[in-house]
Structure formats: C-alpha cells, structure tokens
C-alpha cells in the first residue's frame, strides 16, 4: 500500500512539473511570437483598418513584409515608408481619398499618412480582386501587371485566380505576407474596432 501511495505521489509531482513546464514554455512562445510579430502603430492601424473594412492582422502583415515597421524605409524602386507606397501610387490614391491638403512624397514618411493611404490601397485591391493572393500580387507588382496576368490563359484559366505568379519577387512577397497573416491570426485576436483584445 505504501509503495502504491509513493507511486501516486511521484506521478502527481511529475504531472505538476509537466504542467509547470508547459505553462512556462507556452508563455515564452507567446512572448517570442509577440516580439517577432509586433503591433506597432496600433492606434493608426486600428482606425484605418476599421475605416477601410480590412482585417488588422492583414495590415500588420503587409507592414511587416514591406518595411518591418521602419517608417523611414525606402526601396530601390522609390517606394517609401511603412507600407512602401510609390509617389505615383500615392498621387493616384489622393484622387480617391479627398483631402483639403495636397501631400508630397515626403509625407509618406509619416506613419499616419502612410498607413491611411496604404490601407486605402489595400481596400481598393481587396474589393477589385476576389482572391486574397491576387490582391497582394497587385499591391506588389501593380494593377496593370496583374490584370495582364489574369487575361493570359497560361497564367489564369478562369481570369480570376492566378494559377501561377510569374514574378519570383511577387511570388515570394505573397508567401511572406500570407505567412505573416497566419502568425498574426494565431497570436492575436482583434475586436470590431481593430484593437487587440489579448492581454
């Protein structure tokens, strides 16, 4: 009987240690994921994602892929800021988002303006293309390029879905954004105001 009680006691200790280990590992994993996939500029993202009917997790995923949250980022192609908008795209978007003020490309370094117009652009693309990956291709490669791909039966059989993405850079970009999106969705929950509800 004593031996049986000793075995039960050892099993209880082992179970408690396993539970404790799981708790600490889970906490460290959450900390790692939140460090790797941060919610920077959360007030602006929440506001603009909600206004444009976008999933905030997607907005964060694009920002992470485009600039890794560096508001001063500038690409070789001249794309600027957090969501890497080109001056030409920015000028075109200003005709869609009426404002009393005419902005210049230097304004793209402002997180508030960059995210406002980047979210507007994403919203236009997600409304134009029914497939998430297609919209992301257009964000990276341009609307004209993607429309040409959709008209090519070797690239798109139905004119809606891209069976392949011809540009390697765009293919890699879409994969990165969608992987980011998957991880943001696993790591955070958002309310209807685009705010994180995680502790």
Descriptive notes:
- Its EC number is 4.2.2.-.
- Pfam families: SLT.
- This is Soluble lytic murein transglycosylase.
- The structure is a single chain.
- This protein is mainly α.
- It has 2 domains: 1-36; 40-187, Orthogonal Bundle (Lysozyme).
- It is 62% helix and 0% strand.
- It contains 8 helices and no strands.
- Helix 2 (42-51) packs parallel to helix 5 (111-128), helix 3 packs across helix 8 and helix 6 (132-141) packs across helix 7.
- The protein is globular, with a radius of gyration of 22 Å.
- The termini are far apart.
- The model has no long low-confidence stretch (mean pLDDT 90).
Tell me briefly what this model is.
By secondary structure, the protein is mainly α.
Overall CATH architecture of the largest domain: Orthogonal Bundle
The percent of residues in helical segments reads: 55-70%
Contiguous uncertain segments of 5+ residues: none
CATH class of the largest domain: Mainly Alpha
Series of secondary-structure elements, N-terminal to C-terminal: HHHHHHHH
Our count of helices gives 8
Head-to-tail CA distance between termini: 46 Å
